[in-house]
Design a protein that fits this description.
Blueprint lengths: L1 H22 L6 E2 L3 E2 L3 H23 L14 H41 L4 H22 L12 H11 L1
Antiparallel strand pairs: 1-2
Amino acid sequence: MRQGEISLAGLLALFSLYLMWKSTELPIGYISGQGPGGGFWPFWLSLGMLLSCIAIAWNWWRGKSPASVSDEPLMDGFGWRTVLNVGGGIIGFVGLISIVSMYGAVAVFLIYYLRFLGRHSWALTLVMALFLPIGLFFFFEGAMQISMPQGLPFTQPFFDVMYDIIY
């Protein structure tokens, strides 16, 4: 566990630095009259990830986290099954984007994750799977003016209604 924690923090810190560097190819600040530049979100989220990695490394060095003082293996059978369940769900999510749109894929992923992995109630699952994608639609398409993938033509009626609300 000890080696796994610092190794992963180091790997994620390097990935954060790469993303920060790459995002500076676009403006990372606020552009007057237009909003955030194209690199704004990637840069600042990567900086947050880098600072989190530094905090993890600091706690590892001081021996303050349970993993930093553990000699146990990184993952047991339950850990590997969890990685496969979540990783498989993410692969399914990415595969569904071009079929049912980004928002439809979010809804399906939430149903899978909340109901089947998290064992939450159907009421909570359906509320989250309905309202979160709609909220994301208004945030990205309306407020940020960023279009997400719309999937196959059968999803178009949803987008027609939602765009009528925005415009």
